[in-house]
């Protein structure tokens, strides 16, 4: 098992950071690792797109959201075609700080499987996670400034 974590403190409350985080259609603009996320955020009961209780309907192969607890936690699982060859568990934790006006964001990925040792590039992932966290912070802080 391999794991990497990156933290950032954001000058925006968790609900604003959450909104930036779940804007899946914007990921190609700022995320160096997830160039596309296909699918839509839908209410777990089949209702509106902007519900507090949503699931993610993914493309047939790709990330599947396994936890969405607005505005605290988002996690998805992804695998390389065959189970246990290269499985990724990616999560974001949002913690309110400064009387809830700021957010501490933790991004973590755990990689397991037979190919994990070959495909896990810790230095590259750490740089990407720092860039992703900075991009999420910038997006959330812009929403507050607007």
TrEMBL record:
One matching Pfam family is Polyketide_cyc2
User: What InterPro entries would the database entry show?
Assistant: Polyketide_cyclase/dehydratase (IPR019587), START-like_dom_sf (IPR023393)
At the top level, the lineage of the source is Archaea
Q: What is this protein called?
A: SRPBCC domain-containing protein
Source organism (scientific name): Natrinema thermotolerans
The lineage, from the top, is:
Archaea, Methanobacteriati, Methanobacteriota, Stenosarchaea group, Halobacteria
């Amino acid at each position: 098992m391999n794991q990497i974590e990156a933290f950032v403190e954001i000058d925006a409350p968790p609900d604003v950071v959450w909104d930036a985080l779940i804007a899946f259609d914007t990921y190609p603009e700022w995320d160096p690792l997830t160039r596309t996320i296909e699918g839509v955020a839908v209410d777990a009961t089949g209702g509106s797109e902007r519900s507090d209780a949503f699931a993610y309907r993914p493309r047939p192969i790709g990330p599947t959201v396994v936890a969405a607890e607005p505005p605290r936690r988002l996690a998805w699982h992804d695998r390389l075609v065959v189970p246990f060859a290269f499985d990724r568990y990616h999560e974001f934790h949002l913690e309110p700080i400064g009387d809830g006006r700021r957010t501490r964001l933790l991004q973590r990925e755990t990689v397991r499987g037979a190919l994990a040792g070959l495909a896990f590039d810790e230095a590259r992932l750490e740089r990407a996670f720092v860039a992703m966290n900075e991009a999420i912070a910038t997006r959330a802080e812009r929403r507050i400034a607007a």
